[in-house]
Structures are given as C-alpha cells and as structure tokens.
Design a protein that fits this description.
- The chain has 292 residues and is of the alpha+beta class.
- It has one domain.
- 25% of the residues lie in helices and 32% in strands.
- It is built from seven helices and 13 strands.
- The chain has helices spanning 4-11, 41-48, 62-80, 91-102, 111-118, 208-216, 268-277, and strands at 37-38, 87-89, 122-126, 133-138, 144-151, 161-166, 173-187, 192-204, 219-228, 234-242, 245-253, 259-261, 282-285.
- Strands 1, 2, 3, 5, 6, 7, 8, 9, 10, 11 and 12 form an eleven-stranded mixed beta sheet that branches.
- The chain is globular.
- The protein starts with a helix and ends in a 7-residue tail after the last strand.
Length: 292
C-alpha cells in the first residue's frame, strides 16, 4: 500500500548527498551542482529496497515501483530542507541500483529498464509544493506533490522517441517514450496519481480497442491513478486521449505483473479502491520552470 508513515520513518534514516537528482536529465552535469541535489547511487538503492511485495521487473508494475522510489527520496529531501533545490538521479545510478535490487543483469534486465538505460534517460524531481500546485479546486490535498522530468540529451543520430511492447497487459499495449517526459506525481497516502503526463503515448495492440486506435493512432497517456489492496493487488485507472477522443480504463494488476481489465468479481475491497480512484479531482498546477 501507499504507506506514507512507514516510508517516512524509514526515510529519516536516509541521508541524501547534495549533488543532482533522479532518473532522466542527461549525461553532462557541468554546473549542475548549483541547481540540484544529486542523489547518490546508495540512496537510490535504499529507496528501491522499500518496494512492496511485488515483481518490480514486470512492465505493469513499473509505474508503481518508480512512484514508491520517488516518494521515498522526495520525503527525505523535504525533511532535510523543505525549500531545497530539485533532486537529480542519473541514468547509470538508477539502472545499476535496479539491477542490484532485482537480481538481474544487463543481459536479463526487462526491456523497459534496458531501453531507459541505453537512451541515457535522467530524472529530476522537484518536491517544493509551491513549484507544483497553485490551487486545489476540487478533491483532497495530497500529502506530497512533486514535478518529474525525464529526458535524454540531443546527440547526432539519436532518435527523439523509442517504443516497446507490454506483452503482460490485456490487451497488449505498445508504449512510446519521447525525449522529454513530464508529469506531476501525487501521494494521497492510500492512493497515488500520475497527472498532467506529457511525452508518453501508447495504443492497445489487441482486443476491441485496437480497432479504434488503429484509426486514430497512438493516444497520449493523460493521467493514471493507483491504489493498492491489503494483499498487494493494484487497481489502476488510466486515461488516454487522442484529438477529441478519450478512453479511461480500470485495470487490476496482480503482484506478479499479470494485468486484467476491470476489477475481478467477488472483490468488494477492490471495488472500493476503484470508487476512490473515480472521485472528482481538479488541480491548478504551477507551470514547469526553465523548460522543466
């Protein structure tokens, strides 16, 4: 579950070294120390080790795993300095920590992790509330809100996007990451939200929806809301948009990564989680600054 108290308690023992930050800003750090806190690999490793009892190598658990690690690091930084600079996590430190936590090697790493590493995606995380939210117009106030930017540097011959196929989902889903991806990540204690997502598109490759997306092309992943049951099952509602069309789908993700559409019968607890995720929410966000 999104156990913020447990994360907070463990987080007090984590010392984040002042250097840049998280997962997706690219290679060169020239002058970066003046603008960011760089997260040391050992700190990334400590954050990843807090993940719940599920398979973090499954593509369908990727968003959950990343959110838990980001929240962990952001809470530590906020406790140390609420007005501190954004965090920076380099692609090398993130990938090597991921391999150590999962017991994988570069040859056995899941495709989504290997592609991120090969494209040298770095991540920056801004946890200062006044840089994230301007006003809550409807819905609850999150316990923690961060801006996340994931990107790679321009290089000769380097593409501006890459795609991979999620074969565990039902239907199977093609996901495309663009060179710059941004989103807001919100922690409500017992549920979490990826909001205002930019730079991630996708389309179902099987099932009835595949026929629709074959006509309209890849849709932009606009937002995704997640809640975790007591036995570790994830309920997620994700919205995709394309032109004037939109599709919002509820899926259930089991700890092993197997995903099914909607909520299985006989699980009233999961229906309650879905109900929570359907609640109205409207937030006026602060614009990303300096291109972030």
């Amino acid at each position: 579950m999104w156990n913020s108290r447990a994360i907070g308690n463990v987080g007090r023992r984590l010392r984040i070294v002042t250097v840049l930050c998280f997962l997706l800003l690219p290679g060169s750090l020239a002058g970066a120390e003046e603008a960011y806190n760089v997260v040391d690999r050992s700190e990334v490793l400590a954050a990843m080790r807090q993940h719940g009892d599920y398979d973090p190598t499954a593509t369908t658990n990727g968003a959950r795993f990343q959110a838990e690690a980001v929240f962990y690091l952001a809470r530590q930084a906020r406790e140390r300095n609420p007005d501190g600079p954004p965090l920076f996590i380099g692609y090398e430190d993130w990938f090597r920590a991921f391999l150590e936590v999962t017991g994988r090697t570069e040859h056995t790493a899941p495709q989504f992790a290997l592609l991120s590493y090969q494209h040298r995606q770095n991540m920056e995380v801004d946890y200062r509330l006044d840089r994230v939210i301007r006003e809550i117009k409807e819905g609850p106030m999150p316990e923690l809100a961060v801006n996340v930017r994931i990107s790679w540097e321009d290089e000769p011959g380097k593409p501006d996007r890459y795609s991979y196929l999620d074969t565990l989902s039902t239907p199977r889903f093609k996901v495309t990451n663009w060179q710059v991806m941004t989103y807001r990540l919100l922690d409500f204690g017992d549920w979490a939200v990826y909001d205002e997502i930019e730079g991630i598109t996708g389309r179902p490759m099987s099932g009835v929806l595949a026929l629709l997306f074959r006509v309209i092309g890849e849709g932009r992943i606009a937002h995704s809301r997640m809640a975790i049951s007591e036995d570790g099952i994830q309920v997620s509602r994700t919205a995709a948009e394309k032109a004037f069309m939109g599709v919002t789908t509820t899926v259930t993700v089991h700890p092993d990564g197997i995903m099914e559409k909607d909520v299985p019968e006989g699980r009233s607890d999961l229906l309650e989680l879905e109900k929570r995720l359907k609640q109205p929410m409207e937030i006026d966000y602060v614009e990303f600054l300096d291109g972030r």
